[in-house]
Amino acid sequence: MIRDPRSGQSLAEILVATTVGAIIIGAVVSAIVITMRSDAQNRLASTATSLANGLLDNVQSLADGDWSAIYNLPTKGPTSQYYLVTTGTPPTLSVSTGTDSTVKNGVTFTRYFSVQDVNRTNCGTGTITTSSPTSCSGGVGILQDPSTELVTAYVSWTNVGGASSTVSVPTYLAHSKDRVTQYNDWSGSANVQGPVTSPQPDYASSSNISTSTSGAIELLKY
What we know:
single chain; alpha+beta; 31% helix; seven-stranded antiparallel beta sheet
């Protein structure tokens, strides 16, 4: 019996084509898995960055209303860890030591912020520097600027593959706003010397004014 040589060739071609197809399919599947995992990690990183920026906004709001709440924290430096607590009605912010967490789309994000003092050239009034404070003379030297703090927000989470990731967002907070006090009582006594730690109706000296009208200072005619 004479065999058709083309039958053997066809079987070999089928085996080769199947092998090549399996390799291609495996590569495509791997690429799809990698792409999906990368997209998922990018979404998680975007969520973490948004949480970090939100935390910084809240820290800025607290600092605007009470600079001492940030400046007078007991421990400072890149390894310090604080988070914000909301209490009371109406709600108010305060600082607590440690970290807190929140869940977004089934993923737990841990967040906190650190606070560091800031040094400046020109005896604390120039540009920001990472150098340590020095002696100051004639406007030359490095000193701490008590009106600027470096705050860095950190947010960490566990990726799809099980590895941990962290984003950090730094910002400088400036003590550019003071608490505004509305005062409408100027009926106190004269010759009261300061300084004072809270608003008082008294004053050191006056001339040609009247405080007889509640909430007003009236300039008298000469």
